[in-house]
Amino acid sequence: MNRNLKLSVIIPTLHRPDDLVDAVTSILKQSLIPDELIIVDQSVDSKSYNNIKVLFSKLNPQTKLIYIHDSSIDGLVSAKNHGVKISSGDIISFLEDDEILSKNYLKNTIEVFDENEIILGCSGVVSNIRRSFLYEIMFKLFHRGIFLDQRVDVVRHKDCNGKGQLIISSHISGGLSSYRKEVFKQIEYDLHNKFFYCEDIEFSIRASDFFGKDRFVIATNICLVHLMSNINRDVLEPRWRRKTNEFVLLYKKNKHKKNSLFNVMWLIVGLLFEAAYSSMMKKSLGPIIGFFNGLYIGISHEIITSNNLHKATVEGFGDEWDYFNQRNLNSEEREVIFNDYFGIFPWNILPENSIGFDLGCGSGRWAMLVADKVGHLDCIDPSEKALNVAKKNLSDKKNVDFLLASVDLIPLPDNSQDFGYSLGVLHHIPDTSSALNACVNKLKPGAPFLLYLYYSLDNRSFLYRMIWLISDFIRRFIYILPESIKRRITDLIAITVYFTLARLALLLEFIGVDSKQIPLSYYRDKSIYTMRTDARDRFGTPLEQRFDKKQITKMMSDAGLSKIHFSDKAPYWCVVGIKK
Fold this sequence. Notes:
Helix content: 40-55%
Shape: elongated
Structural class: alpha/beta
Number of strands: 16
CATH architecture of the largest domain: Alpha-Beta Complex
Strand content: 15-25%
Distance between the termini: 66 Å
């Protein structure tokens, strides 16, 4: 065996001082001890730290102890990430604080990597957990596709005292997982979406997608006993809420994969049966309530990426503009809508041959008209598909350039632009305030910035807001569908709901009745093409945020804009500010 492979063991812990001592003792009594042990303690008190200090003083092992005691570290994934950052091992092994390792656990772990250079990650077997045959059958029945999991019956193959076998698996158990350090140079932990129950397989699925599934295995001779401490362990409603929520989130992060929608719907049916059975056995409604709460939370949660970019939303808009490329939009209607947005824009203060940018240009529908009024325009969008549509639509505009970039990586010098605008974009970005700051940074002092953000219906009636809440609930089911199905549904909404209400508003206006409180009255004089486009935008987009006037004013002021002026007509809220 090659002991040139340095081994780091990382244990996150929270308020389990006695369990932690037992776990660490089993590590220090291994046939092969680790080079370093990193404990990431999120406890408020110092009981765990004091216990480990005494233990190390007593045993005086060769293993280097690195103890991080920081209660501000938020969650299991963050704790693991902290450990990885300071680790120095070639192999990084993760353990839980309520596990007892078999004598050769770490020796067998190192041998897997030493004898199989292709292997990048492995997990082992929890030897004291044996599920019923019925459970295994039901698990295999409902966990299909992206949820197919080899771990459910791997205990049948345990060989804790022998050579064991390697079972290829993209699902690696977090509390008994080990990886080569190079994996973390390419794959980062998801610190943004609060995974816990599925944090291990969320990470290992991404790793196996990147490096190849055959490079991740379960080794049946790497064994431990999981004591399943009751401290900090979710039960009943909280457990089922978290479990169901995270399976939905796992689907959202893998929805591009074949049959993933069917897989998650089928899994949800299985989870419902399991929750109902659990409620019956526990004589508590907790599991059923937790299941439905988790389902709602999962559907409502918007997946966040690390670079202030919502990947599913970017992909969705690429699909939208590829289909609704705006070439069928009547030029007169385009100009009417353009003036609805740009009516408050101070064209008169722009210098001659001004240069500026369109952040989130999409199809380039507004850039078509802006380009004729300025010296140079940069159209910026993170979707390559959308940008290709914009290039075709603006092919006759010689003063336009196209930049593929997200808002936090705008490839323009700071303080270089005479104007900028972003219409209907920043409310689809995880951190809208940060995105606005990034835009304003590119402006020269005295330059105007035009912004359109979805309003929080702060100027609407209670009934109007209730109708919107219902529509938003429907949106959360539509946007997770495949694009072809999504588009058919949003077209149906445009033809039935948008068209009906819009023409009702037009009729009321014709007979002299104020129609402003009729939902969708803005579309009373718009074409069905515009309605179809906006219905797809409204109901087919994963991430949507809404802001009232006070919130928008504060964000703009904090970003360095002054002379903030709101339009008093729909669409709401259109607002312009001048960089200080």
